[in-house]
Structures are given as C-alpha cells and as structure tokens.
# Entry
Amino acid sequence: MFQYFPTNYVWSLSTMIALTHGGNIGEVDAMCAPLVEAARVGDDPGTEAFYAAWKGGADQLAALADDDLAHGHKLSAGDKLARAALYYGIAERMQAHGFEARLALYWRSLDLFEQGRTLSRENCVRVEIPYRDVPLSALYVRAEGLAPGERAPLVVVMNGLDSTKEMLQKSVMGTMFARRGLSALFVDQPGTGEALRLHNLPAVHDTETWASPIVDWLEQHAEVDAARIGALGVSLGGYYCPRAVAFEPRFACGAVWGANHDWRAVQQARLKREGENPVPHYWKHVQWVFGAKDLDDFFAKAEPMHLNGVLDRIRVPFLVTHGENDRQIPLKYAHETFAQLVNAPKKDLFVFTAREGGVEHSSLDNPLNAGNRIADWLAEQLGGSLA
# Structure
C-alpha cells in the first residue's frame, strides 16, 4: 500500500481511502504535507491537526465551487463539492468520539455530497427505508440501460466498521455494478453513517434484523427484480453480510470483500496490539459504534460476532475474497469462512495477490482489479451483463 506517512498505517489508510474514492492527488498532497511530523508521533495524537488540514482543504474547494456557481458552471461546482464532501468525511472519521466539531463536520459532508450529487446529475438517489422508529438512509444507483418498466437485479452494499454509504458510493462500486446491468443500494445500517450519528442506532450482531426490512422495501421497488437481490459486505461487512444471507433466504447470493469470520477474536488480538487498527482512538470508536458503556460492555457485545455455526444455513452462491497482506484481518479467516459454506451450491474464494493488486484490507491499496472481479462474479450470479 502507498503509505504517505511511512510510520503511520492508520493515517496512511485514510489518505489512501481518499485517493481511491474520488480524491485528487494534488489536493490530498497539499493537505497531508504539513502533517508528516505529526504522523510520526502515533495514531491518536495529532488527529486534531489532521482535522484542521483536511477541513481547510475542503473549505477551499467549497469556496471554489461557489465561484463556479456564480458563473453558472454547475457541473464544475458539483465535481468540487463531491470532493469537498469526501475530505470532510475523511477528517470526521479520524476524530475521537466526543470531538466537539465532529457532528457539524458530518452534517457539512452530507450537505455537500447532496449538492454535488444533484449538480453533477449523478446516477444516484437518496432513499429512506422503514426501520423501527427511524428510517435507514441509503443511496440507490440504477442499473444502466433499463427500459421503462424493466426490473433489474440489485446488490445491497453493507458498510464496515467505519465506512459510510457516501464513501462506498464514491468507490469503484459506485459505477461498476450499474455498468453490468446491476442496480446497487448503499446502506447506512445500524452502527454506521447516519444510523449511528443522527439516530443513535448502534451496531448489532444479528444483522438479519435490519437486512430483512431492506429486502422488504426492495420487494416493493418498481425497478428491482426481487428474485435477484444479492448482498456484498465490505470489511466488517464481511461478518454482517454472511450473517444476513444465512438468516434471510430471499438474498439470491452473497459476497464479502474482506472475510471477517471471527471479529471477537480480532478484538482480543488488538487488545494485545496484534494487527493494525482502522481508525485512531480505536477503543473509544468501537464502544460508540456498539453503544457500549465501557470496554467490558463492548467485549460482551462483541462476543457473538463470529460466523461459527452460522454459515451452514447459506444455500445460495457465495464469494469470499481477501487480500493476502491484510494487516487488519488475518487471511486465515477467509479460509475459515470458505470451509464452512458447506451447503452453498456454488462457493468461490479469491485471494488477491501482488499479481493483481488489492492485497491490503478490502483491497484499499488498489481496489480496481479486485472490485471488478467481485462485480463480474455478482453479475454472473444475478444475471447481469458482462459484455
């Protein structure tokens, strides 16, 4: 992986996410260059300096977009606002829970994403899915080439521990499904994005409790073929997705981009400083995500976060992928997930190596080849187009 900060994996990971999710290398370099010394101190110290640098870069882009709008240049403005939203989002994800400006920064990111999406006339629509007392927010991307009244297969994209629907929609997944005749739904499920930040919905281990209402809603969607709904989980979605497919038989297939077979064991390893963390202030972050009152409560909530005794319920095609140099989740968990898919009528394991790239966690070092291979597999299962 390209490590802008050679001694700091966590800061470099956020930088790489920006570069592979719509960011501009010149803008990212301008924001990161003043942070080189601060990054050497460690993951947690200096994150407010990171916030200031990235917010400053996003502020400048937003001001440039205002200049474009003053001249009636809506497409140019939309492009800049989309990148500004991404940079605000990266700055927000690097802060500790309780950081005073965090919520305001998140709202700013949402607002600019929406403006950018509208001005750029993107194939992307914000939707809300009924769930308990508050809706789950999602982004719907329509399959390309649909005729009036035609229904398309669809992939439900499930966030990881610290990703959001906006981040994943701006990744390669924002276009690669639609080009293959598949629609996509990027969801802020409990524990992520709006569900966590605006509605205080923590993550839960029994992911079918929110996955089933999503399928209910899709069955009523005029453009969705309800018999061809697949699921893809990214990062911690490598736990959420298999669990959802196991207990929700209406999914026609499933895939994971990073196998999170035993997340409880990964937490114990991280407590011993084994492996890399995805975000700074890690233990504060996971307590917030799971609504835990302290570390003991978090570990109690993490205890059922494994797939042992679950995967034999899956009776649809399933794909397991993993980077061979994943420094967050050991490769052995991909083999464990694959081995336990004993009743899947078709199962495949792709381990991304140096030959094709994408060897790091969820292929964040190089998502293009890995992402396209996953999209091809899903298109094959759901009847999309590979032409």
